[in-house]
Amino acid sequence: MKVYTPDNVRNVVLAGQSGGGKTTLADGTLFVSGAVSRFGKVADGSSVFDFELEEHARRSTVFSTAGFAEWRSHRITILDTPGFADFFGSVSGPLNVAEGVALVISAVDGLEVQAERAWEMARKKGLAGLTFVNRMDVDRADFASHFDSIRQRLHITPVALCIPIGASETFQGIIDVLRGKALKFDANGKPQEEEIPADCQAACEAARESLAEAAAEGSDELLEKYLDGQTLSEQEILSGMRTAIQEGKVMPVLCGAADKGIGVSCFMDAVIDFFPNPNQLPPVEGHKANSEEAISVERSTTGPLAALVFKTVADPYVGRMTYLRVFSGTVKSDSEVFNAKAGQKERIGQLFQMQGKENNPVASASAGDIVAVAKLEHTNTGQTLTSEAPGLILEPPTYPRPSMWLAVRPKTRTDEDKMGSGLRRLVEEEPSLQHYREHETGETILAGLGDVHLHSAIDRMKRKFGVELETATPRIPYKETIRSKATAEGKHKKQSGGAGQFGVAEIEVEPLPRGAGFEFVDAIVGGAISGKYIPSVEKGIRDRMARGGVSGYQLTDFRVRLCDGKEHPVDSNDISFQMAGRLALEIAVPQASPYLVEPIMDVDITIPDDNIGDVIGDLNSRRGRVLGTEPLGGTQVVKAQVPLSEMYRYSADLRSMSRGRGSFQMEFSHYEEVPAHLAEQIIAESKKDKDSS
Fold first, then answer.
1. What is the pLDDT of residues 226-239, one digit of tens each?
2. What is the pLDDT of residues 394-412, one digit of tens each?
3. According to the CATH classification, is domain 479-592 in 3.20.20.70?
4. Which are the contacts of 487, defined by CB distance < 8 A and separation ≥ 6?
């Protein structure tokens, strides 16, 4: 493989809504650059980037994928990402390891929410950006209106590097605004220069004036020259634009029809001309291992090794394939590195440069390179590989928090044995998924970004790891508590020949403040029960608490005082007093005005200003309490408290209300009493489930 210096390397993420043609543009760069001999297509399953069975079935991207093109003596590494909201977690890793992002939008549908979300994340990371308006050859294609929406919705000044010649059925090619030439493209995507059509001259001149004005924003010297009425040269415009783009002042806009190769070469030219090389960005931030001390790492091939793992693929045949980006130093095949987070040495085998699913062996990788390595033992996504201990830890990718949950259980005994390891490998591969054991209900929960995301993961469990899962809506961890005091006696007596069983425990129960939990008090006087049996009574009470009171849900927030009891010199034992404690609590709770409580969640919902009325109305219908709103950029954050039982399907409803622009996060706040009419239904369903089990 040819070795490139950082000056001749570019790393770019393709992001945007499904249907915009990101993967088609990615495949187009490989074909037009000559990296592949056939133009891969998503529709027929020949795409270099969409090669998974699930992607073939959906005909859309599900996982981020890497490929590379060689153009003008540069290597462009392309990181293609999903556009469907449920798979947005796969965008986070690539944005952490690239220097620029290309938003690919449809000339029909325009700028949509996934492009906005990707650009918001990219700006926070200081990435350069451009927009490619694709599908200019289809019905209702409209460049001008979508160009204007970039200014309004991305809050940045758009600057046309290309303008279309015609649209829809009249689309013929594009005009290179900077060089003042019309470009027509052959079947291989190669541009042929022509004179600009007369009816496009005025639009080209206006676009070039805007280009010169934007370039002047990048330099005081150029601004002075521009204001003096002097003409900026092509090189001056390139230089000024490069600075303005990297400072986030302007967004260059290109257009084309990627499936026909139209505009693909211009896209690669723009990436080389306007995106920074890996060593031009500021030092990458991190902190020392086992310390909070912040440190920065210069982006240099000669520095100590600092490589971030941004993706892990769990393959049942090849093993784990780990993708990493080198920010500093050099890593070689067949070498040893140190995982700073895990505190473990790792043996690096053969390094690969990835072209979709194809592995191209390389001897080494230096600052700016993105490579993969198989079968690392201790390394997961988000961790840092360094040259020596204790090393440093780079900032890991931040993934969206789950917004939908399913209870999962193995279909067969064989699946039960493999479920735990399968779920762990699934989450290693896709960190936007989470799995955990809900102790209150005893269920295993799989959490993700939406219904499609979760069911895709379950299908993958079966296909890749041979584990079949059944799913259900998670049970709400309701609890039961009491309003008043009550006393009861639990008596356990059993005679069956030989040694018998005997134990009596008299208890008093009383409520405690919400959230106080359970308290056991030994108030025995005069030795009515031997000290060795007191823990047995408590154990029996706690066992009964977990099994539930009247409703069948766990008891909480009350105190039990063991007041009196009786024992037998021969027949009393540990099990007798456990049973006595259970019986006493079972009798006492119905006399103490029991009632049901439910978990209440603190919820923060981020939405556009014009959706706030719909969202607040919907929260009221979910028994929610709106605590207030806070402005955040061009959005509003609605703060509310909502019962957990109303939130399991909220992700889909919010997406519908906000046209995909809303997001939310929630965490547990406290327990509150369930309204009486709902409590009756919940208790009835609980008893029905218990009877049928």
1. 888 888 999 999 99
2. 999 999 989 899 999 999 9
3. no
4. 506, 507, 508, 509, 563, 588, 591
